[in-house]
Amino acid sequence: MQTLTNELVFKNFINNKWVKSYSKEVSKSISPMNKDEVVGYIQNSTKEDLDQAVQAAYQAKKAWRKLGEVQRGQYLYKVANILEENLNDIAETMTKEMGKTLPEAKGETARGVAILRYYAGEGMRKNGDVIPSTDKDALMLTKRTPLGVVGVITPWNFPVAIPIWKIAPALVYGNTVVFKPATEAAVTAAKVVECFEKAGLPEGVLNFITGSGSVIGQGLVNHPLIDGITFTGSETVGQTVANSASSRGIKYQLELGGKNPVIITKDANLDEAVEAVISGAFRSTGQKCTATSRVIIEEEVYDSFKEKLIKETEKITVGNGLKEGVWMGPCASESQFNTVKKYIEIGKAEGATLLYGGEILTGEEYDKGYYIKPTIFEKVKPDMRIAQEEIFGPVIALIKAENLEKAIDIANDTKYGLSASIFTTNVASLLEFIDEIEAGLVRINAESAGVELQAPFGGMKSSSFGPREQGEAAKEFYTSIKTIFIKG
Ligand code: NDP
Question: Which residue's alpha carbon is at the smallest distance from atom 43 of ligand 1?
Answer without folding.
Answer: 233
